[in-house]
């Protein structure tokens, strides 16, 4: 879209048409172009227009509303496939949970970004292959390789969603960072919708109970399940058509939680030493330790994505830098524990998957930490930190491919 904006700068009608067809992406791309265009009448006009605070809610075009309605209904029907076709839920949901809404979101962004046919075919082909593969993959619910494939497949679909979000130019690093920001905004919007839905559920069940109708089972089996499947689609639509809804909430959350997580993490590491617990001999503790690592890393990346193009105080950059350093320490402990367990008890699919994932995270954190240090030393700007995150995202895609498709074969589907 960036090239389209530049091409139509002197054509008000075409620029207006481009804006109305993709308001969210237009606003994001223009914000990256504005520093270079600043001072020109056209740029100043659009800057004032796009930064004007409005309380109006934009509901998009009729075609968009129709797509969202049909996609939400389809997501709900996919979620109900086990009930409709009498399938075993324990077989269906672990293997297909990502296919309930991620392909529909991918199709939405492919449509909005006018994705080239060859890229659309590639993304669709990988998704179709993954759908067939995961459902014919042998193994029971106790199979380590099956569990790993089921865990990593949604991550693979998430990366494909990112490719659709970025559009035809996959080397557009700012757009990759916007994808991370979109995930943060979607998380906030999803939480708000779920809270509202929870209140509505309680009121509905309570009101029917007052007149003698027990609708709990029906309501949860149909309304709640189908509603939850539709939430990411509706949330995406709202964040894309109305960026102002959570545009200010997400950065505030990032700025509040970054220092709090830093303090919590330092206290937790000290408490771990005194507790006597360690991830070297306790498998469950190691799993929780890795979950903590992934969560903190996500907060760092989310904070950078939310503020990479905004002014940021020196104190906030220090918080992110220290948080990355502490997270590298946590990663080092986790890696040491994994290597210890491999040396003591040998290689298993789970240990190799965790080892590979932690190594990838460590390299990424080192890159981000290095760039944050350079920002503090006045040798780089904050955008370089975001670029270090954006460039690395395809590496995670390759790892999810390996774990999902190669691990079951390498370990004999055990």
From TrEMBL:
Keywords: Membrane, Transmembrane, Transmembrane helix. It comes from the Bacteria. The chain crosses the membrane at residues 65-85, 91-111, 120-140, 146-166, 186-213, 219-240, 252-274, 286-305, 317-340, 352-377, 389-411. This is Membrane protein. It comes from Rufibacter radiotolerans.
């Amino acid at each position: 879209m960036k090239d389209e904006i530049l091409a139509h700068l002197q054509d008000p009608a075409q620029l207006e048409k481009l804006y109305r067809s993709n308001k969210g992406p237009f606003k994001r791309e223009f914000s990256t172009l504005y520093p270079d265009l600043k001072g020109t009448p056209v740029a100043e006009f659009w800057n004032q227009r796009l930064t004007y605070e409005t309380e109006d809610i934009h509901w998009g075009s009729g075609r968009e509303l129709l797509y969202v309605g049909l996609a939400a209904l389809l997501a709900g029907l996919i979620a109900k496939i086990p009930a409709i076709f009498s399938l075993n839920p324990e077989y269906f949901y672990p293997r297909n949970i990502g296919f309930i809404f991620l392909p529909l979101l991918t199709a939405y962004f492919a449509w909005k970004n006018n994705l080239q046919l060859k890229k659309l075919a590639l993304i669709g082909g990988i998704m179709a292959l993954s759908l067939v593969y995961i459902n014919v993959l042998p193994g029971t619910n106790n199979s380590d390789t099956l569990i790993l494939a089921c865990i990593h497949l949604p991550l693979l679909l998430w990366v494909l969603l990112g490719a659709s979000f970025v559009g035809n130019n996959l080397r557009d690093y700012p757009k990759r960072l916007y994808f991370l920001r979109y995930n943060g905004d979607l998380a906030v919007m999803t939480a708000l919708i779920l809270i509202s839905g929870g209140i509505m559920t309680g009121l509905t069940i309570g009101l029917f109970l007052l007149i003698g109708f027990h609708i709990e089972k029906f309501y949860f089996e149909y309304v709640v399940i189908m509603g939850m499947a539709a939430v990411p689609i509706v949330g995406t639509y709202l964040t894309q058509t109305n960026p102002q809804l959570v545009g200010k909430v997400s950065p505030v959350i990032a700025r509040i939680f970054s220092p709090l997580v830093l303090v919590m993490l330092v206290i937790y590491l000290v408490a771990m030493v005194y507790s006597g617990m360690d991830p070297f001999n306790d498998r469950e503790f190691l799993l929780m330790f890795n979950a903590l690592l992934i969560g903190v890393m996500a907060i760092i990346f989310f904070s950078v994505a939310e503020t990479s193009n905004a002014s940021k105080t020196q104190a906030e950059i220090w918080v992110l830098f220290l948080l990355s350093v502490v997270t590298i320490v946590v990663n080092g402990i986790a890696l040491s524990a994994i290597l210890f367990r491999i040396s003591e008890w040998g290689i298993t699919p789970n240990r190799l998957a965790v080892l590979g994932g932690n190594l990838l995270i460590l390299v990424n954190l080192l890159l981000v930490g290095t760039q944050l240090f350079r920002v503090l030393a006045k040798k780089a700007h904050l955008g370089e930190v975001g670029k270090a995150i954006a460039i690395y995202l395809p590496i995670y895609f390759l790892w999810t491919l390996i774990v999902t498709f190669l691990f079951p074969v390498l370990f004999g589907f055990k």
